[in-house]
Amino acid sequence: MVALDGPSLGRMLDDVAVGKIQLPDFQRQWKWDDDRIRALLATVTLDYPLGVAMTLETGGESQFKARPLHGAPVSPRTVPEQLLLDGQQRLTSLFQALRSGQAVETSDARNKPVRRWYYIDISMAVGEGTDRDEAIRSIPEDRLVRGPFGRTLLDLRNRDAECAQGFFPLNLIFDADGTGKWQRIYVSAAEDRWDIWSAFQEKVIDTVKGFKVPLIRLPKETRKDAVCSVFERVNTGGVVLNVFELLTATYAGDADYTREHGKDFSLSQEWLTTKSMLGAAFPVFGSIDRDTRQETGLTSLDFLQAMALTQTWQRKQQYLAANPGAASPPAVSCKRRDLLHLPLSDYTALAPAVTSAFAWAGHFLASQHIFRERDLPYGSQLVPLAAIAALLGNARREPKVQEGLARWYWCGVLGELYGGVTDTRFVRDVEQVVPWLTDGGPEPDTISEASFQEQRLHRLTSRNSAAYKGVHALLMKEGAVDWAFQEEEISEQNLTGWSVDIRQIFPKAWFQRTAPDPTRMTSIVNKTALSYRAYQTIGANSPSVYLTALEKEAGTSGDWLDDVVGTHHIDPMTLRTDDFDTFYRDRAERLLGLVERAMGKAVVREGADSGRE
Question: Is pTM, for the whole model, over 0.90?
Answer without folding.
Answer: no
